Amino acid sequence: MKTKNKTPSSQENVPKKPIIALFNYGGGMRGLLPAHFMQKIEEVTGLHMSDMVDVFMGPSTGSILNAALNIPNPHDPSKPKFRARHMVRFYEREGLHIFPRDSFRAFRSMIHDFNNRTMRIEQLGNLLKHGHYEHANLGRSLRALYGRQKLSDSLKSLIIPVYNIEGAALRPTQEVGDIPHSPVHNVNTFLNEGGHAVWLKNINFEGAITPPTTPVVDIFDAVMASTAAPTYFPCFPFQMKWSEDSPTRTVTGIDGSIFDNPCISYMGALRQHIPKDRDLIIIVLGTGYFNRSYLKEDWNRFGSLGVVDPSNDMPLINIFFYASETALLDSFKQEMGDNLYIFNKSLVSGPYMNDYPNTDIDDASPENLRKLRNFFEMTLEENRKSFNEICELLVKNYDATHKGESPANSLKSRIRRTFLRGEN
């Protein structure tokens, strides 16, 4: 009897569902830009962002957005509590509470710095609030969003970066064969001293390689620390545990934007969890960039204080923020290839600069809100083809995740795809 040659099943030839990651930049009130983008994506697709995205990444104001869009709805825990349009309203409504107009903040900050250098009167520093905004105002706004939800409660994979300025919460380096009384390590542990970048991760997408144990930490605490922008807010101390059975540690966090950008998030927090047989697509929603160049005459004129002087746009701080990203961006783009979509635009060059939003993170004025909306629309129009592509990719990702659902849902998906093709 003749036997037939065994052929691979059709399922073996079908490529596996890609993993879609979303990175939202930091930038204070400029978080309205990715919020507007995500509102538009939800309007076009008819879906929640958490329905379509597998991994949410990003520091500071980006972490506000990412965390909020992954808070479960108390009436239906499989769905998110908030849509992107709610986050647009959040910034528009809460902006002036978080960043109230304070004509004397710069003056208070200057006197505080002078006091630190000369008299060092503690009572004066407290009176001047160290030049910071009230952290309690931000706290009230974020508590209303997150309540007491834990990082482990996030609907999709969520990565929140925090820079810990104290070393006490670092995990000790351990080697194979270590016992509690081991006298030394063979591995150089100098990077485990002092300040340290901390990734607070809940990795829960299907097929993730070696997903880490999710830290026991409130989303509120993680985001408060990731948004503690130096000179704007004080550092934020909070307690956490690396696992349920580990000791409680205190992290003293400042803004995750100190070190984080799409390249760093990918290489430092995400890449090790991506299976080799799965494609990774990264969507980057920016908050506008202002990486300036400086003439050599100006740089030499700045001096030791001028390089961090706000009146000069803090050139050294500006360089620190963009240096690592510019160093890694070419290799990042090369590795990602066509699977990288970046939506961002310069705030310091272009034909309509007079109507561009403020580069400062704390401008919550109605005029700046209008400019942010216009800037989003300009960025969208300049990237319309790529925007339509990601909407279609996101809908396909949703369809692949929800195979076997009711015919009504399949019909909705076909309608969405038809609408998207019509926009191209």
Describe this structure in words.
This protein has 424 residues and is an alpha/beta fold. It has one domain: 3-Layer(aba) Sandwich (Cytosolic phospholipase A2 catalytic domain). The protein has helices at residues 10-13, 32-45, 49-52, 61-68, 84-98, 105-117, 122-127, 135-146, 219-226, 262-270, 296-306, 315-336, 366-382, 384-401, 407-423; strands at residues 19-24, 55-57, 72-73, 76-80, 157-164, 196-202, 236-240, 249-254, 280-285, 340-343. Strands 1, 2, 5, 6, 7, 8, 9 and 10 form an 8-stranded mixed sheet that branches. Strands 3-4 form a two-stranded antiparallel sheet. α2 (32-45) crosses α13. The protein is globular. Mean pLDDT is 86; it is low at 6-10 and 184-188.
Keywords summarizing the entry:
8-stranded mixed β-sheet; Cytosolic phospholipase A2 catalytic domain; globular; 12% strand; alpha/beta
Query: How big is the Rg?
Result: 23 Å
Number of helices: 15
- Mind summarizing the main beta sheet? 8 strands, mixed
What is the residue-mean pLDDT, rounded to a whole number? Answer: 86
How far the N terminus sits from the C terminus, by CA atoms, comes to: 56 Å
Helical residues, percent: 40-55%
Query: What is the number of strand segments?
Result: 10
CATH fold-level label: Cytosolic phospholipase A2 catalytic domain
CATH class: Alpha Beta
CATH architecture: 3-Layer(aba) Sandwich
Shape: globular
In a few lines, what is going on in this structure?
This protein has helices spanning 10-13, 32-45, 49-52, 61-68, 84-98, 105-117, 122-127, 135-146, 219-226, 262-270, 296-306, 315-336, 366-382, 384-401, 407-423; strands at residues 19-24, 55-57, 72-73, 76-80, 157-164, 196-202, 236-240, 249-254, 280-285, 340-343.
